[in-house]
Amino acid sequence: MSENKKNNHLDPGLYVVSTPIGNLSDITLRALDVLKQSDYVLCEDTRHSLKLLNFYKIKKKLVSFHKFNETKKCKEIFDDIEGGKIISLISDAGTPLISDPGEFLVKLAREKKIKVLPIPGPSAVTAAISVAGFSSKFFFFGFLSKKTKERTKELESLCKVASSIVLYLPARDLKKSLEDFKIYFENRMIFIAREITKLHETYLSGTAEELLENIGANDHKGEITVVISDKSVDLEKAEDINLEYEINLLINKMSSKDMAEYLAKKLKISKKIIYQNILDLEK
Q1: Could you report the per-residue pLDDT of 253-282, keeping only the tens digit for each?
Q2: Residue closest to 35 by CA, chosen among 8, 53, 12, 23
Q3: Cα angle, residue 143 at apex, residues 21 and 109 outer, rounded to 5°
Q4: pTM value?
Q5: What is the DSSP string of 40-69?
Q6: Which residues pair with 119 in a beta bridge?
């Protein structure tokens, strides 16, 4: 056992502690206890993390830990743990390492057989998927690349994923991303969770095209988590429509490509599904 249940004493090690993603009340009693017992706390932004610790009247040394100094800090951190210290790792919000610093540190700690323990809690990923109304089988990708070529490759790969997909977006990229989703996810439903648990918490759902028509100026602000529905949403729509009848009305009047584009807009289902039906009928 890593903890003595009677006195709640912690063994030396690295504790990966989940913190609130917005509302400061969303923190576990165990997380608070671990932070209180830590010799120091590794965090992305000391000013940001100080607000959390001050809110709970926890006085601990905060050490800046981010992607630019992660590799340099490891030896010192491991030496401290081997010397009997308890060290916590937190991110600015949610569960550390989920698109946040710490991956290299934890990987190296595991290789060196240093004790690493998770202190579970809030995560924007699970919060968004729990209220999106899509399949609970999901693929988490995180942030798309900023480079156009790499981003295109990522989207081409992601559109083949059958399960729900969870992405993080900088708010300023919302419109651009929805334009991309129109192409790669066509009529799959998109769920936007903005400022989860915060004052201006907002949830929007629809196709990428519908969302582009309805997003307001304030929807481009704050932190955004996007859930893209599983592929079965398209298939369910297709089952409710007599595609064979619709296609037969147009055969010999349009090319297969034009038919697919026309019916995709008319019926609001994927071009790929329609095109496959056209090919099956032509056989």
Answers
A1: 888 888 888 877 777 666 777 777 788 777
A2: 53
A3: 75
A4: 0.78
A5: EEEES-HHHHHHHHHHTT---EEEE--TTT
A6: 17
Rounded CA separation 135/127 (Å)? 14
Q: Distance of CA 99 to CAs 35, 94, 141, 148, Å? A: 22, 10, 9, 20
Per-residue DSSP letters for the chain? --EETTTTEEPSEEEEE-B-SS-TT---HHHHHHHHH-SEEEES-HHHHHHHHHHTT---EEEE--TTTHHHHHHHHHHHHHTT-EEEE--SSBSTTSSSS-HHHHHHHHHTT--EEEE----HHHHHHHHH-S-S-EEEEEEPPSSHHHHHHHHHHHTT--SEEEEEEEGGGHHHHHHHHHHHSTTS-EEEEESTTSTT-EEEEE-HHHHHHH--GGGGSSEEEEEEPPTHHHHHHHHTS-HHHHHHHHBTTB-HHHHHHHHHHHHTS-HHHHHHHHHHHH-
Residue found by looking up tokens 């582009």 in the block: 212
* Contact partners, residue 243, CB within 8 Å, separation at least 6: 263, 267, 273, 274, 277
Residue 157 to residue 193: CA distance in whole angstroms = 23
**Distance of alpha carbon 64 from alpha carbon 73, whole angstroms:** 10
Convert the pLDDT of each residue in 44-102 to its tens digit. Answer: 999 999 999 999 999 999 999 988 888 889 999 999 999 999 999 999 999 999 988 89
Instruction: Tell me the two tokens of residue 69.
Output: 């100094």
